[in-house]
Known about the structure:
Blueprint: H1 5-13, E1 18-25, H2 31-44, E2 50-58, E3 61-66, E4 69-72, E5 80-82, E6 85-87, E7 91-94, H3 105-113, H4 122-129, H5 131-140, E8 148-151, H6 154-157, E9 170-174, E10 184-186, H7 192-200, E11 206-210, E12 215-223, E13 229-231, E14 235-239, H8 246-250, E15 254-257, H9 264-280, E16 287-294, E17 297-304, H10 314-321, H11 326-340
Parallel strand pairs: 1-2, 1-7
Antiparallel strand pairs: 2-3, 3-4, 5-6, 8-11, 9-10, 9-11, 12-13, 12-14, 12-16, 14-15, 16-17
Amino acid sequence: MRLHDSEILFKYIRGMKTRVAVLAGGESDEIEVSLKSANTIIANLPQDEFEIFPVIADGKNWSVQHQNETLTINKEDFSFSFNNSKISFDIVYITIHGIPGENGAFQGYFDLIGQAYTGPNQWGSTITFNKWACNQLLSSFDFNVAESELHLGHDTALNSSLTDTIDYPIFVKPNDSGSSFGVSKVNAINEFKPAVEYAFKHGKEVIIERGLSGTEVTSGVYKTKEGEIKALPITEIVTENDFFDYEAKYQGKSKELTPARLENSIQEKIQNTSIEIYKKLNLNGVVRVDYIIEKGEPFVIEINTTPGMSEASIIPQQAKAANMALSEILTASIYNGLKTKS
């Protein structure tokens, strides 16, 4: 049953807190990032408005922390029992990076049982998680993306026709992973095979992509409680490493400048592009679109529908630059999840 605005309003009027499960963990290399994101979200959600339940999905083991106890989640309806009472959640704040929280798996499950959740629906999550398919779709909408090939099998990926038609550097990366796990910048042919081997350690599909040269930036987008789609200040990535890899993202090997050092015209173009992508793909919640500006033109690298929310992550930095409390963005995501999910 769809939760209408009147039902949400009635809930607040009668003084009940909204029960929020903050769902972290997952089955990918990004578990550590997910747990840090969950801690930040929990710390920034208004305690007077929400009753918050940390939930960890570790493979087939789903558990919730409540009253200093670790309790098992019932997978039939995503509830749990406490003192002989069944406790359900009004909404799940999904902060699993990678599988199964970012690729549409949990979204499909929640749709099936009628559980509200934050972020895009199953289709939006699935298409954006598949980097190659998403970029092909964006290209069909006339957004700039780099030329690329997708390889599903190990042997075929070692013989790329793309490397014969474009200049180095090229990027080799898993199609189904995040946080730059398994990504390599290849500057010469002798580096190609090891890069493919490395990528296949982190995913089942591999993308070979033309290396874009220019300034790397990232643009956060969110939807307000009123339904207006807004872009946050842009962040410029200046990395000590060869590219914005895991060390650069999470281990202090980069500088993230917010707002980015951009001319007003290119800044507006990127923000407007991010908003248009958000609309075209019918996204929801907080989203981050990554770009490289090459010769004055922004090229989309990828879309993150469950962006990192740790203290070191970019969205909290952008909220601060916008003079916004992170709680405002998180609360809006919950409100829109309650409105739009059935």
